[in-house]
Design a protein that fits this description.
Rossmann fold; single chain; alpha/beta; 315 residues; eight-stranded mixed beta sheet
Length: 315
């Protein structure tokens, strides 16, 4: 009898150990994914023809650091337009990459006379931090950069937000606390972190579904946020700020129907949807740069021409 009890305890210990390491592994893959170095990212973007290195080097750049509410040092780069401008675009990159991945988007706005601000989200590149929370804390970081622009340029500044992937989820969730931004461009955002992870788990097998709940509990304990908190579609439903949704129809990382669902859920305010044919995750601008920029600028012009909304300041 004693040997049987020992045997059962050993089996239980093995099972719990396996579950623990599976939860830890997937937690690492979601919340503490390895971040690519800035040098590698920059060279890779140049190689793919997404960054004109000579153009970027010629820009007037102001590097600065701000402190987050939880005392993290965050790096930003402000690029002033060649002409005096009262318009600034803020770009927010996705997970595992830093501001180098935002550079490919900036020329279309600089050419139109906009100032540009790009920055490293927490724990990426030159910004401090241990965990990615998919917009939960990152939206508060974004608010600090928006306020930095307002302090520099004044409350009359027209500010637009552009986010890619996790950065898109961040700018969408930011709408809940927005005071100054006039519009949002969301490129390949997920509508719900839980739903996205459930789809990923389903691909691996139904047996992993309980792991997701344990991962979320680990996130609460370690990173002080729950996957349940991250639901951009719930913010989109309630906001009237103009939003453009962009997604590639070949995106396997974040299914494109998530952007369609958010577009359909938005009942108030200007909205636009652009599905890029043949584009995989975060590659809509790479597949057809001319079309991407054309669609984006149509949306921006629509917002800027709607003077009533701009004068209100809030949506």
């Amino acid at each position: 009898m004693y040997n049987v009890i020992i045997y059962i305890l050993m089996i239980l210990l093995i099972i719990f150990s396996v579950i623990y390491f599976i939860v830890k592994y997937y937690f690492q893959q979601v919340v503490v994914r390895e971040v690519t170095s800035e040098d590698v990212m920059f060279k890779e973007q140049i190689k793919r023809g997404l960054i004109d290195n000579e153009f970027y080097k010629s820009l007037k750049k102001e590097e600065f650091f701000i402190e987050s509410k939880d005392s993290l040092r965050l790096r930003g780069i402000y690029i002033k337009s060649n002409n005096e401008s009262n318009k600034t675009m803020i770009f927010v990159h996705g997970i595992t990459v830093g501001l180098a991945y935002s550079i490919k988007y900036i020329s279309m706005f600089l050419e139109k006379g906009w100032n540009v601000l790009i920055y490293d989200q927490r724990r990426h590149s030159k910004s401090e931090g241990k965990y990615s929370t998919y917009g939960y804390y990152e939206k508060e970081d974004l608010d600090l950069f928006v306020n930095w622009v307002i302090n520099k340029k004044g409350e009359g500044e027209i500010i637009g937000l552009h986010g890619e992937s996790m950065g898109a989820a961040t700018v969408l969730q930011y709408a809940k606390i927005n005071k100054f931004a006039k519009f949002i461009i969301s490129d390949c955002a997920f509508s719900s972190l839980n739903e996205l992870l459930e789809r990923k788990v389903k691909e691996k097998g139904a047996l992993l579904k309980p792991i997701l709940k344990l991962m979320s509990k680990r996130a609460v304990r370690k990173a002080k946020f729950s996957f349940n908190f991250i639901s951009p579609i719930e913010v989109v439903r309630k906001t009237s700020i103009p939003i453009m949704f962009i997604h590639g129809d070949k995106d396997k990382f974040v299914p494109w129907d998530m952007s369609v669902a958010m577009y359909d859920s938005k009942e108030v305010g200007i909205k636009r949807l652009y599905i890029a044919k043949g584009a995989r995750h975060a590659q809509s601008i790479e597949v057809n740069k001319f079309k991407y920029e054309e669609e984006v600028m149509k949306f921006v012009d629509e917002v800027l021409n709607n003077t009533d909304n701009l004068n209100k300041g809030l949506y």
